Write the structure tokens for this entry.
Amino acid sequence: MNINKWMQTNTTDLTGKVVAITGSTGGLGKHICQYLCALNAELILLDRSEEKSAEQIKELTALYPNAKISFIKLDLLNFEDVKICIEKLKNVKLDYLILNTGIYNVERKTTSLGYDNIFQVNFLMPYYITKTLMPTLQKNKAKVIAVSSIAHNYSKTNKMDIQFLNCKKNSKIYGNSKRFLTFALFKLFENENNASLTLVHPGITLTNMTNHYPKAINWLVKIGIKVLFPNPKKASLNINKAMFVNSSKISPQWVGPSTFNIWGKPKLKNLKTANEDEINFIYSTAEKLFETIKN
């Protein structure tokens, strides 16, 4: 695939548009930010590391001297950070919010809010931020791009254990958090007319999240991923595509690789991995958790 030609066909100039992105210094985030700078967007990096963000701003402005880039500290495990970030974003004419942060194989802990750390980072705080910012998103007719994962379909929702606290398999724990993010956000935007949502799956690619296998085989897995799957630069194009398509509000859709959600060019497709009852349960649970945290 010729990336430059693909960009010319599938994107438009973003001069005057403001894009806030979580996970901006990660494997996918860096490439997304480069693409956005190339499209003349103004960037707000939402990241927990001020040092990494400063280095990234330096790198981006070296490539794009006229780029407008700022930083807001956001650690999704720190609720004070979340609240401060939300208040700052309320004062921005935000056009796009990209929810890109994700954690996978990390030590499981209970956060200060009382939730599982993977559940909180991958679902609960992105949902809380989006819903709290909804008046701002509506006012600006903004669009949310939420990065899901093929792993969301590795298991179904467990009503007796919504955070998968009794589960030991990393792929299912991660997948469950992405399942909640995917369908809770879909339902949140189902009847929304002034702000919009597009879900996206970037495919399987080599990032820090795939760097979790035992050392004895990690090098072999890395080689396999590099050979068999798209690199992060190409995988990031799915997120670019999501910014410029209109997804259905009647039934879930997402942008992902065209062939088996693994290979091929980005394509908008129907997402038939949960029935209406499960989607409604996920949404009602998300709303209850939101009210609990808010109050």
Q: What stands out?
A: Residues 3-294 form a domain with the Rossmann fold fold (CATH 3.40.50.720). Residues 86 and 132 are 8 Å apart (CA to CA).
